[in-house]
Each structure stands twice: as structure tokens, then as C-alpha cells.
Queue: 4 jobs
Job 1
Amino acid sequence: MSDMIRLQWTASQAKPAIAWADEKGVDKTAIISHDKANNPEQHDHKHISIETTMSPTGEHKDELFTRFEIPYDTDVADIRTHSSNFNVMDGILRIASKEDKDIQFAKNETNNVTTPLWTLRASSGEQGGNAGADFNIIRYDDQGKAMDSAVTINRQKGNVGIGTTQPESKLDVNGDRIRIRNSSTPESAHAPGNVGDIVWDDNYIYICVAKDSWKRTELKSW
């Protein structure tokens, strides 16, 4: 055992704190830990938090407000921020794990329950040779159940899949159509263009087969 500072709550809703006040004695920041919420109808808070005051000209003038909280009594702590922006200045925001590496967008329900809507994921399964850890954009239904990976990028080959997690070409679309919304007509067979450009108008489909060199095929009704 070593020396310690111990702040013990003496009632279930007590909130032991270390607070910093300005020259007028007004609390500005605090580190607080507590079990029960001030409002007994709320769920138990069970966290340690860093709190700072709200705007001196706002609706909740000079009130201490939780900005950062770490729950206790849980094997995996969902660390939360409130009314806060997170900025990385001249550094890297890194997610490292042997499992899937996720950034998730979710809707906030009551009692800090969240339901996922989208996940940006670098999958697990690194195998060497640049294989594994493919990038996925995953979408969820209203109940938070994953529906599919809308977009997948294969890390080894750089192939992009839409609606498929196993893209076999630079762009692999698991669907029955690709839409180019706007028509365009090259001014001539030698109009500016790059190899592989494809455009259309009411009468032809045009393909650029060499730098500034186009060919076309006629469109007919049936």
C-alpha cells in the first residue's frame, strides 16, 4: 500500500469533488465522482467526470457541466464527452486493435444508450503481404442491426466494391445498373479527353480510346 487521498461519499447521491474556483470563489472546473444522479428518476451515473462551467452569458450561466466522463463498475468503459469538440492539433488520431477498428456514427437514445447508423471499419484479419484490414462503410437499420457493407476497399489490391466485400476489379458493382446523370457530346472525334472517358447523349455513347481520340456507337430504340 502507498499514500493516498481518499474522498468518500457519505450518501448515495453525494458527489465528492476537487474543484477550482476563480478569485471570486465561483467554481470553474472540477473533477467529480458519484454513483447516483441528482434526479432520482434518472439512471445511475456511476462515473468520474471532468466538469467545466457553461457560458457566462448563456441559459445555464456558470453551471458546472460534465464534459468528459469515465464510467466505473463495467468491464469495458464507454468514455463519453458532452457538448464538446475533440481536436487533434499537429498529431494523429489513431485506432489500433487486433480486432476490427471502428469509427461509428449513432443516434443517441435515453440513458446514454446509442443505436448505430454507420460504421467506418478497418477489418481484422491481417495476414501479411498487405492482405486483410480492408476498409468498409457499414450501414445499419433503425434497430441498429448491420445490413451490409455499402462500400469496401481491398487494402492489398486497392479494388473498390459497391455492395460487395470481395471486389475483383478496380470498381466492382454488385447491382444491375450504373447511372451517369448528365449527358455530354464531344465536339469532335479529337475533342479533349482521357483514355477510358465515357459520355452519352440522345444519339450516341462515346468512349475515349486514346488521348483526345473518341469513338462512338449509335443508340437505337427497340
Job 2
Amino acid sequence: MKDGHRSSEDYLEAILMIRERKGSCRSIDVASHLGFSKPSVSVAVQKLVQSGCVERSEGGQLQLTEKGLEIARSTLEKHRLLTDVFCALGVAADTAEHDACLIEHSLSEETYEKLRAFWARREA
């Protein structure tokens, strides 16, 4: 997967997570969450606005469009499943989070669906 695509998914996922936690999201929140500079985040957010994934209000609030929300939810769902699986295997929580973030972007849809089905059977 191209780095730009991965980066976009990270930003969209971060916006969704921040909005879930705080109820609102601004670029500074994304910068803090991802550990990036505010100027870098501003450039990335502008690209997400241009691609139709994010809308920015006059007050600087970031809102995911339907397109952005779909990508963010899919990425976050993969992230949470992978983190849960890794933790269940005994991986330390911090490592599981980090590894899930790396893998969520490159995991094929087929492998993800099989893993999700396996995990659902395990929990049933």
C-alpha cells in the first residue's frame, strides 16, 4: 500500500477516535494524537478536504464526510480487532497497539475477513 494512503487512513482514524472521545476534533488534536507537527497536520487535512473525506468548519472543527467516515470506521475496526488478537496472544498492550497500526493498512481484505470470522467464532 502506498504511504500516502496509509497516512490518510491514519488521519481519518485519528479524527474518528478523537471525536468519539471528546465529541469534537481540531487539527491541533490530531497533531497531538499522532505526534506530528501542526503544519504537517494542516497540509494533510487540506488534502483530505480536497479528496472529499473531511470538512472543516469556520471554527476549525474537523468533520468526517460519509466517504471519510467509511474509511475511518473500517480502519479503526481492523485496528481494534488486531489489537485484541495480539493482546490475547500475550503481546504487551503498547506493542499490540503499535503493531496493529502497522498491519491494519497492509492486511488484505480476504485475510481480514477470515481473521474476523475466526475471532467471532472464538468469542461465541
Job 3
Amino acid sequence: MAWFPFFMDVSAGEGLIVGGGTVALRKIEKLLPYAPRLTVCAPELLPDIEAVPGLTLLRRPFEPPMLEGKLFVIAATGDNALNCRISALCRERHIPVNAVDDRENCTFLFPALVKRGALSVGISTGGASPSGAVYWKNRISELIPQDAGDLLDYLDGLRGTVKEAVPDGMARAAVFSTLFHTCLENGWPLSDEWLDSLLGGLKPGGVKEELP
């Protein structure tokens, strides 16, 4: 059965990573572009982990009270029995948990990611084929322009203007679609004159007049 791809704001709370080795480092590196608040717990930590700014480092073994108030947990200790125990404790507390390389003890999976600013695409095979996930990640990455995030930032900056000018929901959706495709095909920023023509050409009730 496929896993449903929820998207979570990992900056909204604190995540816990149990483990201080290379696997834990890879998970940290995947999360960093999303501005997380992370606590890392392990008796020994890689120097590369210690060098990551902004982490809370606990140089000691895992203890259950460390789970208190956590938004999510990653069990990456290299000790399967400990990872299973952490997973069970998280499930009891309804905390999302990822036990590395142990799909049966995960309640969420790490996807292969393509990120362009505010745009994130996650690819998962449900753990069936990590190589397949990487392959499709690379194919999708080739299709998405490097400046896609800049385009989204620009369009986001227009949202307030469009909402004020176009109160009708269906008409507003059509305007956003026109803006996106026009920017994608012709570049941005759009001229003030073009925007005025687009927004000014809407009749009451959401009927759009022909644009110049």
C-alpha cells in the first residue's frame, strides 16, 4: 500500500534525532533547508554534526523523557533494538517517528526530495525501492527550472493584490492560473500595465473581458 505524502512545517516544533553517526547526519542535512529546530542525542557525535549551527546537542544516551513535547522523532542509532524501543515509545505518545532502514517501525518516511525555494517535491516508493525513488527524483529535477522558487515568491507577492481586485473565487483561480503560465512562458516580473489590464478586464461576477 502506498504511503500518503503529508507535508509538515518542521519549524513549528522541535524534532529529536537519536544517533550521532553518518545516518543521523544525512537526516539532519535533509531537514536543514526547512529551518527545523533539532535536538540530537547520542553518547558520541560526529564532528560534522557538532559543526552544524543551531542544533541542541545532548551528549548522553537516549532517555524516554527526551520525547516530551517533540513534533517528530528520528531513531538513527545503528542499534536496531533501541530504534524499535524508541519507535514503540513514540507510537504510545502519538509522535511521528522514523526508524532508519526499518519500514515496519516507521510512521513516516523520508522521501527523495527536489526543492526549489517554496517548491518541494517528495518521491517515495514506500520503502520498496530507494533506487527507484532516486531515479524519479533525478528525472523530475531535470523538468523543474532552477528559478522555480523565485517564480513562486513573485506570485506569492501578488496574492494580496489579486484577492483585493478579484473577490470571486473561481475568477481569482483563473487569474492565478493566467499569471503562472504567463510568467512561465514569458518571464517575470510582469509590467504594471499588463497586470492592470488583466485585473481591470474583469467584469462584475467574474467574467473576464478580452485582454489586449
Job 4
Amino acid sequence: MDTDGCFTIHKYKVKGKEYQYPKIVFSNQSEPILDFVYRGLLYLKYNPKRTLKYDVWLHNQNEVMRYLKEVGTNNIKLSIKKILGGVR
């Protein structure tokens, strides 16, 4: 995850109200690696999605928070404290 993964804040507006949610995406062109990440997340009781050809996503906000708390990361542009404290 630390080399081919990315944390992003999904922002959008509905009727003038802004919403923000953290998401995790893992991108790789190797099908065996993508399958390994997908099945690994399932094994850890996450609900990953294969939304694009080379991506595995965690879309659920609670799962993203859980991942950051339980697994963590050493490669993140935003600090975990900022992600956990700044997004509702």
C-alpha cells in the first residue's frame, strides 16, 4: 500500500453543501498483485471495490479510518492526525 497506494479526500457539493470523505486507492497493473491486495483486504474484513481496471478502493469512510488506525502507513502526504481529525 505504501508504494502503490494513495489516500485522497473526495470532495463534492450537493445543493450548495460541501461533503468530504477520505478514500484509499491502490493502483497497479499486475493482476496477481491487485488480487492479493483485494483478497487481503477482504480477509481483514474490509469491503474493497475493483472500480477501475488497475485499482482497488476503500470507499467507506469508517473503513478508511479503521485502516489508518489498524494498519497505518509510512507514506502519506497528509498526516493521519489531519485526516482523522479534519474530515467528518
